[in-house]
Amino acid sequence: MITLLILIPIIGSLMILPLQEDYLNNKNKIKTIAITTSIINFIVSIFLWLEFDSNTNQYQFVTEFDYLPIGHLIFGVDGISLYFVLLTTFITPVAILSNYNNINVNIKYFLVSLLILESLQLALFLILDLLLFYVFFESVLPLFFIKILVYGSGESRDRSANLLFLYTLFGSLFMALAIVQLYSYTYTTDFQLLSLCDISLEGQKLLWLAFFLAFAIKTPLWPFTGWLYRAHADSPLAGSILLAATILKFATYGYIRILINFLPDATNYFGPLVQTIAIVTLIYASLSTIIQQDTKTLIAYSSIAHMSIVILGLFSNNIQGIEGAILLALAHGFVSPALFICVGGIIYDRTGTRVIKYIRGLVTYMPIFTILFFIFTLCNTGIPLSLNFLGEQLSLIGIWEVNPIISALGATGIVLSACYSIFLYNRISYGKYSPHMNKVVLDLSRREFILLITLLIPTILLGIFPNLILDSIHLSVSSLLFN
Amino acid sequence: MAVPSFVQLDPAIERWNRMREDAYKHFRFTRRTSLITFTGCVLIPSVIYYVASETQNKFKWTGKRKGDSLVQS
């Protein structure tokens, strides 16, 4: 079943490649194949979730390919990776549907790259080998680079693509060196064997710093946040959605799988450092968000602030914190794409601008959009009944056990997130209809409505009933902490 | 990617937005910016790190009764 998850998008892209875009109806055929492939993959992942046994902390559905020349491929899923896999397969059809009508040139290659990206993301969350984890971690970069350069908007998209590529590559260099050093200590790169190895604290410290640098750039944490807002602003909508929903979760997954699992003593030792960086990131990113005047950049900076609370929860060294961090990461994977669809898809498609000063009084002609945008804005601030609320509260409760002062500083993020979220919503929704807009904007189309409702349902459903997630991850998180 | 534009561009807003976008191109280290950089990049993180390291695992909340100290022994 796991192999099927990775192969289905590749099969879909191979079906699309021979089709010529210029021929009659082929564009519709290409889009239909892409969306059908991604929905089939989501259905397969639902079967994976239904078959998953929550009563064990072992890797399940383990599939091994040791006869391949490219290396020892071993895939498996546990409670922690299961929901990242589900998030990836859920968000890919959303990403495809978000850019369904506004990419008209080279749509074939755009959709092929999206499907291949899905395979690579799934491979990262499923692989049980450290070296191949690194390979898949890096593999998404060239696709995103091309996506921003070719399909992006904005005059400085070449700079944005370069920043994305070079920042992440710089960090990954240290991760590669750390993997080599880790191999020299343990003579294995298998996750299951590495989790049993015992490395001295002195040996762990340098490894930890190298891995942390790579993941801190990917998260991103201060002072490495310079690439994300640019990549989001200039990326096409599907790229922004994938970047917010899954690419940022690579780092979250890496922290859990590698830092907490393989280097626990160093994780404990560097706790204050991580808390410092997370708090500085939270406050600086939140303050930067308040002054932004580009809607997509504002949502991008708010992503940075939310990810810093995820980091606080992950490094709290208790079950509440880590489970809260996973919940918040998943919630962010629903709400952030929804906000990008609202500002970077719906508003940008109609008005052609992302500058807040031009957009005002949208409630006059777009009441349904305004309602949904309001709900997602509230979810972003962490209102009760949303999954964001549970994730944030559990993360802060977790870090309170370790360091209440840091937790109190982290709670200021809730206030600041309310400031910038309400500012954005109020500014563009209410007031007199903007004098700069010389036409009436239409409300949501059926496609846009379906996209937003699809993202709203899991946010509220899981916010009311989080046990759907917590039951499956509880054993895996417990064994992470107590083994 | 062609995007239909409904917006009547205002040259003042465009100039202001360009100024905000290109602020990094005109940055240089003056006395004021050096002070802000030092405060934001060195002083504040150092203070937070000092507070974090001093209070890490310092307080224990569970099973406390009236009169018990919160400070972990």
TrEMBL record, chain A:
NADH:quinone oxidoreductase/Mrp antiporter transmembrane domain ranges (all copies): 129-414
Record-linked InterPro entries: NADH_Q_OxRdtase_chainM/4, NADH_UbQ_OxRdtase, ND/Mrp_TM
Membrane topology: Multi-pass membrane protein
Pfam families to which the protein is assigned, alphabetical: Proton_antipo_M
Keywords in alphabetical order: Membrane, Transmembrane, Transmembrane helix
Top-level taxon of origin: Eukaryota
Main location: membrane
Entry's transmembrane regions: 32-50, 70-97, 109-127, 133-152, 164-186, 206-229, 241-263, 269-291, 298-319, 325-348, 360-385, 405-428, 449-470
Gene Ontology terms describing biological process: ATP synthesis coupled electron transport; electron transport coupled proton transport
Single Gene Ontology MF annotation: ubiquinone binding
Gene Ontology, cellular component aspect: membrane
Cellular localization per UniProt: Membrane
Similarity section: Belongs to the complex I subunit 4 family.
Function: Core subunit of the mitochondrial membrane respiratory chain NADH dehydrogenase (Complex I) that is believed to belong to the minimal assembly required for catalysis. Complex I functions in the transfer of electrons from NADH to the respiratory chain. The immediate electron acceptor for the enzyme is believed to be ubiquinone.
Protein name per Swiss-Prot or TrEMBL: NADH:quinone oxidoreductase/Mrp antiporter transmembrane domain-containing protein
Annotated source species: Pisolithus tinctorius Marx 270
Automatic annotation (TrEMBL), chain B:
InterPro entries the UniProt entry points to: NADH_UbQ_OxRdtase_NDUFB4_su
Subcellular localization, as worded in the UniProt entry: Mitochondrion inner membrane
Keyword tags: Electron transport, Membrane, Mitochondrion, Mitochondrion inner membrane, Respiratory chain, Transmembrane, Transmembrane helix, Transport
Chain segments annotated as transmembrane: 35-52
Origin: domain of life: Eukaryota
Topology with respect to the bilayer: Single-pass membrane protein
Pfam families named in the record: NDUF_B4
Main subcellular location of this protein, as a coarse class: mitochondrion
PANTHER family named among the record's database cross-references: NADH DEHYDROGENASE [UBIQUINONE] 1 BETA SUBCOMPLEX SUBUNIT 4, NADH:UBIQUINONE OXIDOREDUCTASE 6.6KD SUBUNIT
Family: Belongs to the complex I NDUFB4 subunit family.
Protein name per Swiss-Prot or TrEMBL: NADH dehydrogenase [ubiquinone] 1 beta subcomplex subunit 4
Protein species of origin: Pisolithus tinctorius Marx 270
Lineage, opening ranks: Eukaryota, Fungi, Dikarya, Basidiomycota, Agaricomycotina
